[in-house]
Design brief:
single chain, mainly alpha
Length: 92
């Protein structure tokens, strides 16, 4: 399970990088206006940012043509690189 999560997040890292600042700034505007507590404001900001990045990644994976804008492969999962021994055999 840990390996699957690691592979999933490896594919999502660039998309998260692209989306996180926009989501954080947009989400940070609203809790500041509602005068949430010292604990609730950063917790809500963190939750909104993480969930927004996950939602953006899933949308980018599923909508054809959008994934290229966020560096996401259209095929879900991780495509491992061929091992050195198999690639050296193929080059001969």
């Amino acid at each position: 399970m840990v390996l699957e999560l690691d592979l999933y997040l490896t594919g999502a890292i660039f998309c998260f990088y692209v989306l996180h600042q926009t989501i954080t700034v947009a989400a940070g505007y609203y809790p500041g206006r509602h005068r949430l507590s010292v604990v609730a404001e950063p917790a809500s900001l963190l939750a909104i940012t993480v969930l927004g990045c996950l939602a953006g990644y899933e949308l980018a994976r599923r909508i054809p043509g959008v994934g290229i804008l966020f560096g996401v492969r259209s095929v879900s999962g991780y495509a491992p690189v061929a091992s050195a021994s198999s690639s050296s055999v193929a080059l001969r």
